[in-house]
Amino acid sequence: MTTILIVDDDIHILQLVNIHLSEAGYQVFQAKDGTEALGVLNREACDLAVVDVMMPFMDGYTLTREIRQKYDIPVILLTAKNQIEDKEEGFKSGTDDYLVKPFEPKELKFRIEALLRRYDKQSDASIIRLGRTTINKKNYEVQIGDRTILLPLKEFELLAFLASHPTQVFSRDHLIEVIWGLDYEGDERTVDVHVKRLRGRFSKLTNDFQIKTVRGVGYSLEANRR
Questions:
Q1: First CA to last CA across the chain, in angstroms?
Q2: Could you give all domains of the chain from N- to C-terminal order, each with its CATH number?
Q3: pLDDT number for residue 44
Q4: pTM to 2 decimals?
């Protein structure tokens, strides 16, 4: 189910948007300020954020910049202002769209649908998401919530390959061929060692996935559904 985070200090806006988006089939998380919103994003895998500009503690522009630094999700800013300067500030902070209050809930829903389609088309095979865990094959980073983990190259390549084919079982020989190459002179125990290291690194950090041993065959990665 697609999850939407709504951030607004106006409880009536939160309730109104929650009703309409829930009826449209979305799972909705709510936050009354930027700090609370970052806490939700750290716990839950959200697909899009709708952020009010004028909020206590952390305004929408600052929150949008924080989201941009840590999460690859679209952001829609809500504001009571319609000045070009405010729109400029919003887009500089990294927002994908801008909606002026008061707005029709249907228009917000249309804009959410358009952004989700755009992000889906732009989704890159180099980005693998497993719950709150993101594996980025471009910069060789694994991110769990707001924590970034840098792995040794072969460990990363093994994790990324298994995560790219969830539930599919691969023999040790096949993994050696894909990750280490045909001319590798070591034995299949190398795979066992790397899997053990990956399990040791991630077992206490996340339950988003598990690398399972398939006796007599090899290994597979299983993503845990929430």
A1: 10
A2: 3-122 (3.40.50.2300), 127-223 (1.10.10.10)
A3: 86
A4: 0.56
Tell me: the pLDDT tens digits for 111-125?
999 888 887 755 556
Least Cα distance to 136 among 105, 157, 165, 112 occurs for 157
Residue 167 backbone class (left: φ over 0; alpha: ψ -120 to 50; beta: rest): left
Whether omega before 102 lies within 30 degrees of 0, making that bond cis, reads yes
Q: pLDDT tens digits for 99-115?
A: 988 889 889 999 999 88
Unique residue bearing structure tokens 């998380």: 29
Measured from the Cβ of residue 86, the count of other Cβ atoms closer than 10 Å reads 17
Nearest to 21 by CA among 115, 148, 107: 107
Q: Contact 76/115 with Cβ under 8 angstroms?
A: yes
